[in-house]
Amino acid sequence: MAAEFDTFLASGLRWFCHVDDDNYVNPRALLQLLRAFPLARDVYVGRPSLNRPIHASEPQPHNRTRLVQFWFATGGAGFCINRKLALKMAPWASGSRFMDTSALIRLPDDCTMGYIIECKLGGRLQPSPLFHSHLETLQLLRTAQLPEQVTLSYGVFEGKLNVIKLQGPFSPEEDPSRFRSLHCLLYPDTPWCPQLGAR
């Protein structure tokens, strides 16, 4: 994630969004969500990984530690940070400093983002139910809700495939993640989507 963050800082773009490569991103819903935030505000938006803040030990001088707690958005569902906030994060997150910060609190990269934002900068995670990871029961999402969702995931849980429940032009064998069928529901004019008359 450190390389992604540095690439973003050098880009001049307004938003940094991290999404795992096995997720589906709905660009229309993502843009709608991001446009709702005021430009002047620091924004860290995503789905909390836990239903409570995480705790970490922060090393202090004289061989002491301080217990800190903070919320973080799970990288498995994706999250976004605006440029205004990202620039403030640079002292702990740019170059090798991101890895140093992560090693300091001995937590993974998505937790490190939350730590920097909440513990170092006093920011707050803006929770959003529109980001989804494989850790939730994806079948509970109704088909009518799918166009509003920013990210969707899939995975295997307790030996069963955990995917969105969606009828579509592709069979579960052709499309086990259901992402191809979802894409054709959201963007039916995509060249590789079967046309309505052919279904």
Description:
30% of the residues lie in helices and 19% in strands. The protein is an alpha+beta fold and 199 residues long. The protein has two domains: 2-127, Alpha-Beta Complex (Spore Coat Polysaccharide Biosynthesis Protein SpsA, Chain A); 138-198, no CATH class. A four-stranded mixed sheet has the order 1-6-3-7. A two-stranded antiparallel sheet has the order 2-8. Helix 1 packs across helix 3 (83-93) and helix 3 packs across helix 4. The longest helix is centred in the middle third of the chain and has 12 residues, at 109-120. The model has no long low-confidence stretch (mean pLDDT 93).
Task: Considering the chains and any ligands shown, give keywords for the structure.
four-stranded mixed β-sheet; single chain; 6 helices; 199 residues; Spore Coat Polysaccharide Biosynthesis Protein SpsA, Chain A; 2 domains; alpha+beta
What's the helix and strand layout?
Layout: H1 2-11, E1 15-18, E2 24-25, H2 27-35, E3 44-46, E4 54-60, E5 64-70, E6 79-82, H3 83-93, H4 97-105, H5 109-120, E7 126-127, E8 151-152, E9 155-157, E10 160-162, H6 179-186
Parallel strand pairs: 3-7
Antiparallel strand pairs: 1-6, 2-8, 3-6, 4-5, 9-10
Helix pairs in contact: 1-3, 3-4, 3-5, 4-5
